[in-house]
Write a structure and sequence with these properties.
With 102 residues, this protein is mainly β. 9% of the residues lie in helices and 50% in strands. The radius of gyration is 13 Å and the shape is globular.
Length: 102
Amino acid sequence: MRAVALSMPLVIPKRRIYKKTKGNYTYYTIYIPQDFNDLIPIPAFITIIIGNETLKLGVRRPFKVGREKYAIILSKELASIWERLIKESIEVTLVLEPISSQ
């Protein structure tokens, strides 16, 4: 059973972006460590911080991968940025801000 998510942003440093393929469909994803499962706001406003650059991706719904992990699918329109980060093995900071229920 999930506990209530925090009402403040959840900041998760040192995350990697992964490229996945399912049939002819390619997508980019970022996994959330299992330790944060009870704190993940669903839905959440997603922001990715790369060094001094901030990318606001908008509202996403983290989803379960397997039994215990959560992940977020990243915007395909930013594929060139994700490819560069993957190629250069750059880690990013993931920020999940809760969406108000009102």
